[in-house]
Amino acid sequence: MESQRLELLKHNNLDGFPFRCADDIELWMRWGYYLSPIMYGQNAISINEFLDNRWGNLTGSPHESTVGKSLLKERGFFTDEYWYWICVGVLLGLSLIFNFLFIAALEFLNAPADSKAMIADDDSEIVSTRKLPPSSEGSSSTSEIGCG
Q1: Enclosing domain of residue 74
Q2: pTM, full prediction
Q3: Which of 37, 77, 107, 117 has its CA 20 to 30 A from that of 91?
Q4: Looking at residue 144, what is its pLDDT?
Q5: In a domain, 9, yes or no
Q6: Disordered: where is this region (predicted)?
Q7: Please, which pLDDT band fits residue 22 given cuts at 50, 70 and 90?
Q8: What is the pLDDT confidence band of residue 82, given thresholds at 50, 70 and 90?
Q9: Nearest Cα to 43, choosing from 66, 16, 70, 19?
Q10: 42, 16 in Cβ contact below 8 A?
Q11: Is residue 119 part of a domain?
Q12: Which residues lie below 8 Å from residue 75, measured CB to CB, with a gap of 6+?
């Protein structure tokens, strides 16, 4: 349970949601921002939306040519079209890397406890019974266990 909380805290702090852009993150923490798959997905979706012709109205500003590019730059996203494909490629690459690491962990790491699996032969009729803890052996009613 504690590891799930730490993972959630890491994602909330490094995925860019509490920050406006990568420039708002301390220099020593930017590696987590750029390693996060959520950042690349968010950039790809934003680039796909705001570089569309619907956002192509001129702004009148000498620095930015369209409304979409000015919105992307204001929010700290990439403003060039080729970054869409870079973000998609990074997402695919990270999914392959994470899947490979997951499979390697399942293959080479030991289980935290001994396996209790029983394999019965087709010929024998083994019936496994589970013993109740000593404190509840005397009770035979299911309503006393907490089902009521």
Answers
A1: 2-110
A2: 0.59
A3: 107
A4: 47
A5: yes
A6: 127-148
A7: low
A8: very high
A9: 16
A10: yes
A11: no
A12: 20, 21, 46
Q: Taking a C-beta distance cutoff of 8 angstroms, is the pair 68, 56 a contact?
A: yes
Query: 68: which 2 tokens?
Result: 């979409």
Structure tokens at 81: 């079209």
d(C-alpha 11, C-alpha 3), whole Å = 12
Q: Measure the CA–CA gap between 77 and 83, rounded to whole angstroms.
A: 10
Q: What is the 3-state secondary structure (H, E, C) of the chain?
A: CHHHHHHHHHHHHHCCCCCCCHHHCCHHHHHHHHHCHHHHHHHHHHHHHHCCHHHCCECCCCCCCEHHHHHHHHHCCCCCCHHHHHHHHHHHHHHHHHHHHHHHHHHHCCCCCCCCCCCCCCCCCCCCCCCCCHHHCCCCCHHHCCCC
Domain count of the chain? 1
Residues belonging to the chain: 148
Max Cα-Cα span within the chain: 84
In 109-130, which positions are buried (b, 16+ CB within 10 angstroms) versus exposed (e)? eeeeeeeeeeeeeeeeeeeeee
In one-letter notation, the amino acid at residue 44 is A
Q: Is residue 14 part of a domain?
A: yes
